[in-house]
Write a structure and sequence with these properties.
- This protein has 266 residues and is an alpha+beta fold.
- It contains nine helices and eleven strands.
- The longest helix has 18 residues, at 20-37.
- It is globular and about 55 Å long.
- The two termini are 15 Å apart.
- The relative contact order is 0.12.
Length: 266
């Protein structure tokens, strides 16, 4: 399951990105993130304004780690420094992200990147608190952003093309958290094959039936995407991406089912 690090206030279920203003603020938030990525120096406070996981999370840990050397008193002092100097202290999270600039930008200039952001796909995925933005590059790769629906809007999660959560990547986690999206099989197909590997001639290991909800990880440039029966569980195989209906295109009865299941868990 997702590692939520902020407290969300329960609000009525609404349609996401309801109007042009919502869409514009999502675009602007991602644009601001990239403005910082292209900048020579970024402070903790600057990144916190657009990126939730920087606040009190990885940036604090990296800030402290660089200064405390496992000494308790030094760590306490480092934490105080982080709180006092957030406006001027360098964001280590952004420094680490810059190591993945090629994946995050496809090597594009700022101007071309901003043009792509304007064309990015805004998606809903059955989460009442957040909205997705898929930034697709000319080479076929995709960077996935998840943003909160509140104002001011901030990025909550960023996943690289392979579906890995960038926070876990820069923290060198052995098993990075994966991006999972709800899906079902296309209308007219009562069954979709789940294959052992990401090829059409690979062994069939399972099946997905029409109106059955499953979870998949969208990966750019791949025709077959890994599938799990439940969010966060081990993949059971691969499904042809052309067979998948994403949540935003679910028929009404399936969206209602997702809504009811979520309410039952509260």
């Amino acid at each position: 399951m997702k590692k939520l690090i902020y407290i969300a206030i329960l609000i009525p279920f609404v349609s996401f990105a309801q109007n042009g203003n919502d869409t514009l603020r999502f675009y602007n938030c991602v644009k601001e993130f990239y403005t910082l990525l292209y900048s020579n120096k970024v402070s903790i406070s600057q990144l916190e304004k657009v990126y939730v996981n920087s606040s009190g999370g990885y940036d604090s840990k990296l800030f402290i780690k660089k200064r405390c050397n496992n000494n308790r008193d030094s760590c306490k002092k480092a934490l105080e420094l982080r709180q006092w100097h957030a406006d001027t202290a360098t964001s280590y999270v952004m420094l680490q992200m810059k190591k993945y600039s090629k994946e995050l930008t496809d090597g594009l200039t700022q101007t071309k990147l901003y043009q792509l952001i304007k064309k990015a796909k805004i998606i809903e995925f059955g989460d009442e608190f957040t909205t997705g933005l898929e930034l697709s590059f000319p080479n076929g790769n995709i960077v996935h952003f998840e943003l909160n629906n509140d104002e001011p809007t901030q990025i909550v999660y960023i996943w690289l093309n392979n579906g890995n959560l960038i926070d876990d990547v820069i923290a060198e986690e052995k098993n990075p958290q994966k991006l999972f999206r709800k899906g079902t099989v296309i209308s007219g197909d009562s069954i979709a094959n789940i294959r052992e590997a990401a090829t059409i001639d690979s062994k069939i290991v399972s099946k997905i039936y029409q109106n059955e909800i499953f979870y998949y990880t969208p990966i750019g440039k791949s025709d077959y995407w890994p599938v799990a029966k439940k969010e966060g569980e081990k993949y059971i195989g691969y499904i042809c991406k052309n067979k998948i209906i994403p949540y935003n295109a679910f028929p009404k009865q399936l969206k209602d089912k997702v809504f009811e299941e979520r309410n039952n868990k509260k």
